[in-house]
Amino acid sequence: NFFPTAIVGFIAGVLGALIVVEASLPGSTPLPSGSTQNNSSQLPPSVTALSNHEQNVIAAVNKAAPAVVSVVITQDVPIIEQFFDNPFGSSPFGSFFSPFNFSVPRLEQRGTERREVGGGSGFIVSPDGFIVTNRHVVDQTDAEYTVFTNDGEQFNATVVARDPVNDIAVLKIDGQNLPSLSFADSDQLQVGQTVIAIGNALSEFDNTVSTGVISGLSRSIVAGDSTGASESLDEVIQTDAAINPGNSGGPLLNLSGNVIGVNVAVALGSENIGFALPANIVSSIIDDVKETGTIARPYIGVRYTMITPLIQEQSGLPVSEGALIVGGEAIGDFAVVPGSPADRAGLREGDIIVSIDCVRLTDKTSLATIIRKRRVGDTVSLRILSRGEERTVTLTLEQIPHE
């Protein structure tokens, strides 16, 4: 009878300890011997209720989750079958190898089949079915895209526009009175602010929620994918909220449940370093699509590198900051795009753009950063250093040609 007795004795001891702890809580009344109490109102709020922070997170998730969607990619893929063949069958050596049943495996394509090949996340931004996601989620023009909402409803999605500059795309589904999210002002974000990421993690666990803080602002990164393609992204938000594969295109939220960014990339080999495109950039894209049916990205038409002290020293430049106009090594990588606003304004390879509209170009404020905040048709003033002379150039921004 040792073990049952020991267990009962242990339980009785624990219960006794709990009664002592409860009786010692501030504001509690000691219980008479043999009496019990089931009134949870006597317990402190930390025991009976969630903290205000937890309540805010839950409220934000409940507000946003119905508008977060999973994007599934389907595509015709080849059916590959294996068969065995005697490579010497039709040769003079065929009769020699035939007794040994000599054969080698070969692969042959026998038709195609429709198959799910990937997925990502997105979120609805208007009741009539406009959806934001990442461009790299829907960059295959020969694929079909299906959207699944939080309640399991399925929609065929059309890619309305792909941003040629930022990793953003806009989808459209047929619907009315759909739940949608609003954008917050990302210019007001603070490092340390609590954020929430929601998305289709690993393209398997839809509406996965993770929380963290804003770890940094106005980061510049080079994001790449599994195909080797890469692009430079400026002014992105850094966060330690877990952003897993499949979360791409999902929203980064504040505690009010409004979108402050679109999850776009993670730093490989890191511990929870993720990045999101700021809401103010994305909201302007949505406005363009609704007004014109496309993403109107302004450009001046130059290829450049931002000057650093090292580049200044190596190239013998007269300044340590600015955008140096340079050409690329590949055919067609013009320093100045023929027929572009910069070309018509007389900009040449080797010129240095020092400022735009009196805003100096530095490692923190690049040429692309300023231009992305302008709209097609805006007029800008550039201060240029050209062949040792300083001059001011005025030009009108045009829409970047789509590939």
What Rg, in angstroms, do the CA atoms define?
30 Å
User: Would you tell me the structural class of the helices and strands?
Assistant: alpha+beta
> Largest sheet, order of strands side by side?
1-2-3-6-5-4
Q: What is the H-and-E element order? A: HHHEHEEEEEEEEEEEHEEHEHEEHEEE
Portion of residues within helices: 10-25%
Distance between the termini: 82 Å
Report mean pLDDT, rounded to a whole number: 80
How many separate helices? 8
Instruction: Say how many strands there are.
Output: 20
In a few lines, what is going on in this structure?
Strand 7 and strand 8 (205-224) form a beta hairpin. This protein has 403 residues and is an alpha+beta fold. It is built from 8 helices and 20 strands.
Search tags:
disordered N terminus, alpha+beta, 403 residues, 6-stranded antiparallel beta barrel, globular
Describe this structure in words.
This protein has 403 residues and is an alpha+beta fold. It has 8 helices and 20 strands. It has helices spanning 2-23, 45-48, 52-64, 94-97, 279-292, 309-315, 341-344, 367-372, and strands spanning 68-85, 104-124, 130-133, 144-148, 154-162, 169-172, 194-201, 205-224, 230-239, 251-253, 259-266, 274-278, 298-299, 304-306, 323-325, 352-356, 359-360, 379-386, 389-396, 398-399. Strands 1-2-3-6-5-4 form a 6-stranded antiparallel barrel. It has a 6-stranded antiparallel β-barrel with strand order 7-8-9-12-11-10. Strands 14, 15, 16, 17, 18 and 19 form a 6-stranded antiparallel β-sheet that branches. Strand 11 (259-266) and strand 12 form a beta hairpin.
